[in-house]
Please model this.
Amino acid sequence: MLRALLYILPLALTIYAFIDCLNTPEEETKHLPKVVWVIIILLFWIVGPIVWFFAGKVRRPAGARGRAGGWVAPDDNPEFLKSLKQDGPEKQDGPDDDSALKDWEADLRRREEELKKRERGEDTDS
Model:
């Protein structure tokens, strides 16, 4: 079992470093172009991934990614919360909504009357 770990751990580290290198934008790689880093990771499969993690990529604190222009959840976005407060109830229930509601109610009443006439056997083609 211990012999298997001697091969599995470096292989897993190499695969992880390879995928991390491929997913890293070119602007965030340090010292060498991205293609050279991929070759180093694949050729030197124990040392290459370790060097990539320590010297190949610009590292930022975990909290800095979302604030640097990335995606922020709506609950954490103050601009989104301000826009909700500005909309208010007057924007949600405008005069167009009331007229549309009245039209729907009138259409519903008309359809109910047609159904009642059909149930009684009256002709609705008039």
Notes: The first helix runs from residue 2 to 23. The mean pLDDT is 83. Residues 64 and 70 are 9 Å apart (CA to CA). The chain is about 70% helix and 0% strand.
